[in-house]
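User: structure tokens for this one?
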Amino acid sequence: IGRTPKTKDPVLRKILIHYISQLKKGTISTQQEVAERVFQDIGQKVSQPTISRYLKKRKVTHKKIDYHYVEQLNHPEKIMDFVEKIPILSKSPVLAIDECSFHLNEVPRYSYAEKGKRASHRKPGMKTEDFHEFISNLNLPTNQKLYLLLDNLKVHHATKSCQKLGLTTIKELLVSKNIEPVYLPPYTPELNPVELCFKLLRQNTKKKKPRTFEELEASINKATKVLEQQDLVKCFQHC
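Assistant:
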């Protein structure tokens, strides 16, 4: 007949349910810690594999944490307003845009600098003229009105900086292309489908372990081709 599983014990099962809830909340981080807490509370030894099997039966799996900005708590109305807009946006073609960074896995660890100062090599980030040029060069397959999801980065709202450069404002440029910008609520990158695309790009680029900027660029181009073969509609559905 075999032994009765330890987890059939009602006392043990009750305390396991309690600590599994703590595990899901993140106040306990490992299965071994659950086992140790159980022993401290009721003096019964439970192995980590037993905890693992119990979790599997309850369909509790180990996943990467999705972190959310605590600052979201300051903007509940803006977030709700955006969520209510989603059914309306879904009736028209929607684009999504954002910027992301990539880092070289293996680069020289030493360089030269004046005494008392740090040695650093930097690549410039996104500037107004860069974003303006990017939008200007967009070749869209339709003249139909499009919605563009983007965050609240300053260059996405650029007006005065564009005027100083003798350029049309970003809003005017978008209007000329029949694009209506839809700005995400503050601190909500998880609502932008392009974040899922960045995840795939980073995963594929990381595998190549580029050591130079040229290798990094080549890796990103290859990863982009992989991305283009995916059904990106799922990214929008996920968000």
